[in-house]
């Protein structure tokens, strides 16, 4: 009996020791978490594929937020005119936050579409806070990832303004009704010269991307297809 009791006692002590080690480990992880949080509390912070810059952290404030669909990484006349129109609208309507969307849509490109758009918009809209979404490759993913970023930042949206060019207006309007169905959305279009072929392509693209917005397998298929087409410079 003494041997049996001693054995149980040893098992209990061993289990108690393991619990103490586990509690110490969890405490250490909690401390590391606090340190990481403090280290990342500067005005420029990275969340995975997203980057935050100059955002105001008042979750009780209602925001007028804009989402910019970017088009290409070459700051040609078409893109400059489009971004100038966006900046003028943002300043005139006093938007609080602007989400710039668009990743490395061209293979081996040094810049993302969001960065190029920011370089053109920021000098004309300096009172606005900016968020970067630098992973999307299509209009569908511009809006899907923008929604994810809004949820991550927990911003209260008064009105959501989505900026796009004229050729993609119908597609953006349809996608916004699906992706931001619980928000007050205003789609703002600006003229941007495109080829006739691109206008015609919007018919199947609109149908496919709207299907992708409600069907994850289709969305994943479209994403893989767009990645394979990154050697082409035209946005989809």
Short summary:
With 236 residues, the chain is α/β, with parallel strands linked by helices. It has two domains: 1-37; 46-228, HUPs (Rossmann fold), CATH 3.40.50.620. The protein has helices at residues 2-39, 77-92, 113-121, 139-153, 169-179, 196-214, 216-228; strands at residues 44-47, 50-53, 62-69, 97-101, 129-133, 156-165, 185-190.
Summarize the structure in words:
This protein is of the alpha/beta class. The protein has 2 domains: 1-37; 46-228, HUPs (Rossmann fold, 3-Layer(aba) Sandwich). The protein is built from 7 helices and 7 strands; from the N terminus they run H-E-E-E-H-E-H-E-H-E-H-E-H-H. It has helices spanning 2-39, 77-92, 113-121, 139-153, 169-179, 196-214, 216-228; strands at residues 44-47, 50-53, 62-69, 97-101, 129-133, 156-165, 185-190. It has a 7-stranded mixed sheet with strand order 1-2-5-4-3-6-7. Helix 3 links the parallel strand 4 (97-101) and strand 5. Helix 5 (169-179) packs parallel to helix 6. The longest helix has 38 residues, at 2-39. Residues 1-5, 7-14 and 24-54 have low confidence and may be disordered.
């Amino acid at each position: 009996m003494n041997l049996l009791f001693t054995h149980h006692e040893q098992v209990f002590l061993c289990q108690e020791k393991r619990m103490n080690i586990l509690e110490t480990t969890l405490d250490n992880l909690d401390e590391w978490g606090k340190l990481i949080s403090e280290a990342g509390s500067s005005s420029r912070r990275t969340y995975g594929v997203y980057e935050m810059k100059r955002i105001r952290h008042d979750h009780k404030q209602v925001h007028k937020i804009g989402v910019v669909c970017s088009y290409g990484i070459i700051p040609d006349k078409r893109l400059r005119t489009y971004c100038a129109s966006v900046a003028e609208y943002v300043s005139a309507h006093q938007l609080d936050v602007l989400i710039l969307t668009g990743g490395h849509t061209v293979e081996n490109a040094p810049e993302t579409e969001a960065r190029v758009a920011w370089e053109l918009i920021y000098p004309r809209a300096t009172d606005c806070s900016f968020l970067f979404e630098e992973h999307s490759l299509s209009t569908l993913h511009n809006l899907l990832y923008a929604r994810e970023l809004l949820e991550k930042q927990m911003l209260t949206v008064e009105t959501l303004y989505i900026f796009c060019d004229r050729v993609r207006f119908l597609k953006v309007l349809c996608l916004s009704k699906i992706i931001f169905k619980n928000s007050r959305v205003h789609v703002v279009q600006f003229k941007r010269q495109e080829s006739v072929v691109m206008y015609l392509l919007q018919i199947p693209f609109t149908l496919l991307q709207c299907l992708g917005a409600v069907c994850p397998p289709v969305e994943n298929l479209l994403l893989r297809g767009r990645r394979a087409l990154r050697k082409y410079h035209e946005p989809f």
